[in-house]
C-alpha cells in the first residue's frame, strides 16, 4: 500500500502550492484517499495524479 501524504507533502510532490490543492479539495475537484480522525486529508499521490489528469480532460 502506498504511503499517504499530508496536503502539504502531496502538493510539494506535484509541484503545486498547498493552497491550490486545499482549494481543489474544498471545491470537490479532487478527493483524498483518507480523512484522519482530526479531519485532515491524506493523499495517495498516484491517485491524485490520476484525478488531476481526469480534470484536465474535462
Question: What does the model show?
Answer:
This protein is mostly helical. It has three helices and two strands. It has a two-stranded antiparallel sheet. Helix 1 (7-13) crosses helix 2 (18-26). It is globular and about 30 Å long. The model has no long low-confidence stretch (mean pLDDT 96).
List keywords for this structure.
mainly alpha, two-stranded antiparallel ribbon, single chain, 58 residues, 3 helices
Tell me the radius of gyration.
11 Å
- Segments where pLDDT lies below 50 for 5+ residues? none
How many β-strands, per DSSP? 2
Strand order of the largest sheet: 1-2
Helix content: 40-55%
Please state the structural category.
mainly alpha
Helix tally equals 3
State the shape: globular
Secondary-structure map with pairings?
Blueprint: H1 7-13, H2 18-26, E1 34-35, E2 41-42, H3 45-57
Antiparallel strand pairs: 1-2
Concise account of the structure shown:
With 58 residues, the chain is mainly alpha-helical. The chain is built from three helices and two strands.
